[in-house]
Amino acid sequence: MAIKKSDLYSSLWQSCDELRGGMDASQYKDYILVLLFVKYVSDKHSQKDSVFTVPKGASFTDMVNLKGNKEIGDKINKIIGSIAKANDLDGIVNVADFNDEAKLGKGKDMVDKLTALIGIFESLDFKANRADGDDLLGDAYEYLMRHFASQSGKSKGQFYTPAEVSRIMAKVININKATKAEQTIYDPTCGSGSLLLKAQAEALAAKNIELTIYGQEMDVATRAMAKMNMILHNCPSAEIVQGNTITNPHFLSGERQLKTFDFIVANPPFSTKSWASGINPNNDLYNRFEYGIPPAKNGDYAFLLHFYLRL
What we know:
- By secondary structure, this protein is of the alpha/beta class.
- It has eleven helices and eight strands.
- A hairpin with a 2-residue loop joins strand 6 (252-254) and strand 7.
- The longest helix has 20 residues, at 25-44.
- It starts with a helix and ends with a helix.
- Mean pLDDT is 87; it is low at 129-134.
C-alpha cells in the first residue's frame, strides 16, 4: 500500500520538532536532514542500481543497534564518517556533531534524544521511494527544509527559497526553451539548491532535458544541504562548491575569466553590507564593476553585475 505523502511528511515533522527542545531550528535541521540522508543511502544500498557504498558496520541498522548506548553520539559520528569517506561525501554528510553536549545534552539526555530520533527514521522505508510517480524522499527533504526555514526567523532565506517562487523564476528565465543536456544552469548563491532543482524539473517536464547544474554557496552547512538535496533528487553530478561568490568566485574559463552559463537563477543576500570585504572593486580580477561600483554598504548591484558577466 502506497504511503500517503502528506501523512508521512506531517508525522515526520511533528516527531522531529517535538524532540528539538531549545535548539534553534537552523541548527537542528543539520541533524535531522543528515539522518534522513543516511537512512536513504542505507536503504538504497541493497538495490542493484545503487550508486552508494555502505561499509560494514555503517548501515542504518547498525545505527539502530546503538539505541540506548551510552556512547551513541560518538558512534553515530563514526558511522556517518565512514559513509562519507566511502562515498566521497566528506564535508557533506558529516557536518553535524552528534556528540555535541551543548546542543544535544549530556549523559542520559543525549542518549534519550538520539535514541528517539533514530526511532523516528527506523520506521520509514525508502527502498521503494516513489509514490504515484513522485520522489517521496526528495519531497520529504524539501518539506522538512521548508518547515525549518519557517522557524528560523531572519536566517530562513539563507538556505531555502519557497517552491512557488522557484517555479515562477524557472518560467521567467524561459527554462522550457532549453534544447540539449549540455546546456548549463547556475546559481551563485544556491542555498540548499531549491531554485536549481525547480528549474531542472521545469526543463524535464517541458523537454525531458536534464541540464548540467552548477552552484556556489558561502555557508559550509548549507552547501552540504544542497549537495544532499541534489543526490536525493537524482542529480548526483551537480557541482556545488563552497565559497563567497563575490570575493572568491568558482567556475572559471581562465585565470581572469568567469565561466558563462546558459541559464542563471538566484536568491542572493540582498542589501548585504560587507559585500566588498576581501576585494578591491576598483581593481577586480574579473572586471565585474566596470559599469559602476556598488555602494559600500549595499551589495545588490554587485550581485547583479556578477550575474550579468556569467551569461
